Structure formats: C-alpha cells, structure tokens
Amino acid sequence: MSQWSQVQQLEIKFLEQVDQFYDDNFPMEIRHLLAQWIESQDWEAAANNEAMAMILLQNLIIQVDEQLDRVSQEKNLLLIHNLKRVRKLLQGKYHGNPMHIAVIISNCLREERRILAAASMPVQGPLEKSLQNSVVSERQRNVEHKVSAIKNSAQMTDQDVKYLEDLQEEFDFRYKTIQSLEQNDKNSALIKQEMLALQAMLNTLDYKRKEVLSKIGRVIHEIDMLMSNMLTEELLDWKRRQQIACIGGPLHGGLDQLQNCFTLLAESLFQVRRQLEKLDELLTRLTYDGDPIPVQRPQLLEKVNFLLYNLFRNSFVVERQPCMPTHPQRPMVLKTLIQFTVKLRLLIKLPELNYQIRVKATIDKNVSTVSNRRFVLCGTHVKAMNMDESANGNLSVEFRHLQPKEMKTSAGSKGNEGPHMVTEELHSISFETQVCLYGLTINLETSSLPVVMISNVSQLPNAWASIIWYNLSTNDPQNLSFFNNPPTATLSQLLEVLSWQFSSYVGRGLNSEQLNMLAEKLTGQQVNYNDYQLSWAKFCKEHLPGKSFTFWVWLEAILDLIKKHILPLWIDGYVMGFVSKEKERLLLKDKTPGTFLLRFSESNLGGITFTWVDQLENGDVTFHSVEPYNKGRLSALPFADILRDYKVIMADNVPENPLKYLYPDIPKDKAFGKHYSCQPNEVSKPSDRGGKGYVPSVFIPVSKILNDSTEPHSPSDLLPMSPSVYAVLREHLSPTAIETAVS
Questions:
Q1: DSSP state of 451
Q2: Which of 255, 256, 232 is nearest to 245 (CA)?
Q3: What are the C-alpha distances in Å from 722 to residues 490, 641, 687, 718?
Q4: Measured on CA atoms in the order 552, 493, 319, 16, is the torsion positive or negative?
Q5: In Å, how far are 25, 252, 392 from 387, measured between CA atoms?
Q6: How many helices (H) and strands (E) does the chain have?
Q7: What are the phi and psi torsion angles at 497 (to 5°)?
Q8: What is the pLDDT of residue 224?
Q9: What does the DSSP assignment read for 210-248?
Q10: What is the pLDDT of residue 558?
Q11: pLDDT, tens digit (0-9, with 9 covering 90-100), for 468-518
Q12: What is the DSSP string of 182-215?
C-alpha cells in the first residue's frame, strides 16, 4: 500500500494535520494524482543536488502533462483548470530554484510519515502535545486579528491627518485673506465676524491636532503591547518548533504567518512615522500657544523608531539551520572542509530592501564562550538578501558553499583535529547585516542553533546525540557551555524523540511496546515514564551492562541497518525489532510451530535475527534463534530472500525451512513475497548449463541444530551451493552425510 493510501485512511484529526502543510507551493491534487511516482523518487537527495532537482522538476512537469492529456480526454473541466494552474506554477516558481520544490516535497513526505507514526501510537507524546496546544493556536489567531486591527487604525489615522491638513489649509487661506485687507476694512463688523469664525476654526484645529496625536499614540501603544507580549511569544514558539523539527519532530510551520504580521506592523509603523512627519510640516506653517505637536511629536517619534529597531532585530531569523547536503537528516553537525548550507530570512518583506541588505557569516564570533579550538569559514561568506531566489518571494539569502576549517594553534599544529575530536563542544555560526531605510540605520545580528564540529564521519553518531540532547533539553538558542553540566531529560520526552528518529529517518516510528523495551534498556527496570529523569551519561557515554558500547551507539547502528538493508520490511511493520529474549518467548510459546518474529540483536551492533517456535516429539515447546545477520552478510543477500530460502539441517532429517508464519499468524510468503528479489528457481539438473557453460548457482542460507541444542549451532549462512548439487545431495546421500558435507 502506498504511503498516500495509508494517509487517506487516517482519522479526521490526522487528516486535518495533513491538510495544513499542502498549499499552493505543492498542491494536494498533484500529490494525489502522482502518488506512486512521487514516492518512488529521491526528493531528499534532490533537495541538496541542483542537477538532480532540475531533472526531477522536469520529470514532474512531464507527469503533470500526461495527467493533463488524460483528463482532457475525460473532459473534466475543473481538473483541467487546476492542472494547467499547477503546471504554470511549477514552471514559473521553481524553474530558477528547483531544489526548493524538492525540499517542499521531501518535507511533505516526511511529515506524512510522522503523522502515520503518530496515528499508530496509542497516546500522543508530551512534546508534540505541547506544540499543538490549543492555547497557542488561539494566540496565533489573536495576533493576526490584532495586527489587522492596528493596520486599519493606522489607515484611519491617515484620513484624520488628511482632514487636519485640509482644515489647516482652509484656515491659512482665510487668515491670509484677512491679513491682506486694509486697516479700515479690518474694523468692519463683517471682518470681526470672520475673526470669530477663524478663532473657532483654530479651536477645531487644536482639538483635531490633539485627537490625531492621541490616535497615533494609541496605535503606537497597541503595537508596543503586541510586540512585547503575543508576537514575542509567537516568535519564541516558532523557534522552539524549529528546534524540535530539527531533531525529527513535527514539521514546523507558521513562518509565513509571522512574516505577514511583522511586515504589516512595519508598514504601520512607517505609516505612523509619515503621519508624524506630516504633523511637523503642519507645525512649520502654523503654531500657537498650547500647540500639542511640539510637545508630543518628539516623544512619539522616538517611540516609533525604538519599535522599528526592535521589530527589525527580531525579524532577522535563521529559516533553515546549518546542514551538510550529504546528511540532510542530521542538521547542525558539520564536518571540517565539507560544504554546508544555511538559509536566513528577514520577516519584514519590503520591496525597497530587495538586494539592499548584505549578510556576512562568521563562526564563533564570541570566542570567549567556546573551546580552545578555533574555526574560520571558507567560501562565499557575504551575500545579498533578495526576493528572487525564494519561491514565495520572501526576502531571504541562502549560503550554499560555506566550509568550516580549523585554524592552526600557536604551536603550529592543528588543535584537536582528528578521530578523537570532542563531540560535546558546541559552536555558533553568526550572521550580521545593516538595514538603511527612510533615514534609519539598523544593525542586525542573529545566530544559528549550536553546531557540533567533526573531522571524521565516524564521529557523526555521537555528534548527533549531542544535538538531540541539547535541543530536547533547552529553549536557550546559544548556551555553548551546555555540556559542561548537561541536565537530565524526562524519559517520556526522550522516548518520543527516539520514535521521531525512526519516523523521520526510516519512515516508521515506534509503538508503545517497542518504546517500553527501550525504556527498560535505558533504565534497567520498569519505570514511570513521566517521572523518571535520565542522565546524558546514561544515554550516550556509559556502556550498556556487559556490553562494549553505549545505548545510543547500539540504537544508531540499528537505524543504519534499517535504512540500508531492511527498509521496506520495516515500513510494512513486519519487523518487531525491539523485543527482549524473554518477551519473545512469551509471545511465541502458544503459537503454531514455525511461527517466527524478527528482532534486533542486543549483543551485536547493527544485527537482526529471527526466532521461531518448534515442538518436540514429547510435546515440549522449544525455541531457536539464528546468529544475527549484520550489514556485511545482508549486503550479499537481501533479508527477505534469506527468510524465503533459509534451511535447517536437524540430525537425521532432510534440510527444511522452519519459518512458516510471521508472528502472530501471517503466512511468510504473504508478508514478504513482494520483497523477494526473485522467485526461487526450479532445481536444475546436473546437465543444465548456464551462461558460458557453467551450472547456475544460488546462495542458500543453512544452519544445523544438534540434538542437545535449542540454538542453531555455528550457522554457515550463505553457503555457495548450486541447485543441481543440492538436488544430487538429497538424492544420493543420507541426511547425516549431508550434515557432514555442510560442516
């Protein structure tokens, strides 16, 4: 079943989540019509490879054209209209930046997998629940409502200023008319009446000036309150959601909404600033005793400028955290002399700023806060923000060719460069720029989340563990001394993040039973998830009892095994994986002989084994577990083929496959048939000849079990034995002789 088919079967509450991340950037119609083709492409790799992204974009347009031809024959007018619109969108918006559509589709597919994993969980995790808090959603709506109200108020004040300007021009005209009359004319009753009218008009002017200043003051106060409270909280929440998304959590959205709010507030503040400038012009033409403009205007202007400074400073954000293209699902881990990408955005989108803001990138700017190791950035580290590279026309800049390089120490040799580089050292990439607009000059600075520098890819697992622990444990975006005294983490939150590693990296999260097993492995006992605090050392530094490796190294090896060798089986849910030997026997003991399950080895790194139940002649139940298969052996033969062809040689018995039913009762071929690399060949006769005169051969995984053992004894997997030789052995030799030959 395709991933999209699974999505369509979700409950309505999960479908609503899916609906949130499909928009005009990637319409749901295309996801639906091209579901299988989209899922068969490697969008993740294309998101970091421009040539590959361009090819995929062109193929996507071809697929849309084919659908357009089909619906044209069916005369489906609505679908024809939508597909033409989508085709125009793909050609116009992404032709200059094909990697952007690859990023969007990759993120959508990843978020679908996360939601499918969440739907299979009996209870929503605490972190995800906090991110989807109804109070947060209500605040978002309130912010948008208040920003809209502020914009309307500023526009209404514009009309008041225009009325004031017209009123003053009329007053000025009538006043100058009287001033031009002869002295005798000024004493007439008509003129005296006009003077009284002018005095009344002046009183109205004074009232209107005070009213306009009061309205401007209220707009400024509303903006100040919104920025100080709800908007600041919204921005902090977005940054927290970005942290969580970086370690595999829900895809963070809301930046476009924030940009809309920031931009409208900036436009309102500049509008108020122009209104104050207009009042200054009116002041130069007319002033009087008790005039409120010279008293209030300077204070209001100072407050407007202060708010603009703060608004711009908060609007400069890292939209996409530093990430190596070679490891897109391991952001914030950077390898020396390897390029990484990072994207920034200014949330105040004003056309006047296009190509006017040059951003400079540096590393460890505040060197006093980091370790003795020093780095510099090689490559293009100064670029201009623009609206042309972004598909949405956002004011952004993406650095694609930065490389960190470690500086030599004073002794002339490199610092800790080498295989033992400390993966708990945190570093910071900073960005600075200057905005000059309407007489204002504002210096802006922002920084990435802390990054870990490695010099060898073998250090990546532990570096990624540091990134997980940091972003799980703290909201502080710049605590570079975090690992001097790392805090504990709540076990329930950690388990949720571990499930995210599986849903984001290998397409299927962990269920409650699998998480229970991991919890017991971490703590050595059954505990209350919500109360138990786990230390950083227990997670990543201390060896598991009786083992030569840590919990995290063991788990990372399993992730790598799934990704490279058993991914389809894992996604289908046929790998129970995380189950102890004791638990597997409880599950299998009452099952039909030949029932088996797949679990990850607890003693071997990156190993998977299978255990099946059997029944002795006296009725007793026995269990057999094969020696774990690691990536070396799985590179020679697909795991599904091993399950199909596996043979056991018991004493006095012919070789047979003991694996009949996948737990609980799924026929083996029904579960794994679609994953077999090919159907098993008929046994060849000795006279059969393959290419170049050779008898065709296959690999047959074989184990033997001694009478007094319940475990396969020294399994000789992947024995090279041709079908014809195997047939001859069965025809001419006894089972004992075959066993001797295999040994």
A1: B
A2: 255
A3: 55, 16, 12, 12
A4: positive
A5: 16, 22, 8
A6: 27, 20
A7: -65, -35
A8: 95
A9: HHHHHHHHHHHHHHHHHIIIIIHHHHHHHHHHHHHHHTT
A10: 95
A11: 999 999 999 889 989 989 999 999 899 999 998 998 888 788 888 899 899
A12: -HHHHTSHHHHHHHHHHHHHHHHHHHHHHHHHHH
The position carrying tokens 């990546």 is 460
**696: alpha, beta or left? (left if phi > 0; alpha if psi -120 to 50):** beta
- Give residue 426's pLDDT: 92
b/e sequence 186-215, b meaning 16+ C-beta within 10 Å = eeeeeeeebeeeeeebeeebbebbeebbeb
- Residues 324 and 335 sit within 8 Å (Cβ to Cβ): yes
Comparing C-alpha atoms, which of 624, 517, 516, 510 is closest to residue 570?
Answer: 510
Which tens digit of pLDDT belongs to each residue from 612-637?
A: 998 887 878 889 888 899 988 888 88
Instruction: Identify residue 478 by its one-letter amino acid code.
Output: Q
Distance CA 156, CA 162 (A): 10
Say what the pTM is: 0.80
C-beta of residue 508 within 8 angstroms of C-beta of residue 558: no
Distance between first and last Cα of the chain? 43
Q: Give me the residue label for tokens 């972190």.
A: 127
Nearest C-alpha neighbor of 286 from the set 186, 202, 192, 162: 202
**Cis omega (within 30 of 0) on the bond before 27?**
no
Residue 582 amino acid letter: E
Give me the residues paired with residue 382 across strands.
Answer: 360
- At residue 736, the pLDDT reads 54
Give me the sheet containing 647-650, strands edge to edge: 647-650, 698-705, 713-721
What pLDDT shows up at residue 550?
Answer: 93
H helix runs in 95-188, sequence order: 98-120, 126-131, 134-179, 183-186
Distance CA 606, CA 625 (A): 16
- Residue 326 token pair: 């070679």
Q: How many CB atoms lie within 10 A of CB 577?
A: 21
Instruction: Give pLDDT, residue 293.
Output: 94
Q: Which pLDDT tens digit goes with each residue over 297-316?
A: 999 999 999 999 999 999 99
Report which DSSP code applies to 692.
G
* Pairing between β-strand 452-454 and β-strand 333-335 as defined by DSSP bridges: parallel
- The string of pLDDT tens digits covering residues 18-72 is 877 777 678 888 888 888 898 888 888 888 788 898 899 889 889 888 888 887 7
Q: Distance between CA atoms of 554 and 544, rounded to whole angstroms?
A: 9
Rounded alpha-carbon distances, angstroms, from residue 154 to 273, 285, 722: 10, 24, 85
Which uninterrupted H or E stretch holds 310?
A: helix 293-315
Report which of 629, 654, 648 is spatially closest to residue 639, judged by C-alpha positions. 629
Domains and CATH numbers, the chain: 3-120 (1.10.532.10), 136-313 (1.20.1050.20), 324-407+420-458 (2.60.40.630), 512-675 (3.30.505.10)
Q: How far apart are CA 54 and CA 96, in angstroms?
A: 9
Low-confidence ranges of the chain (pLDDT < 50): 411-421, 681-689, 708-710, 712-725, 743
Distance, in Å, from the CA atom of 593 to the CA atom of 113, rounded to the nearest integer, reads: 35
- Tell the residue number behind the tokens 């998480």, with chain if given: 515
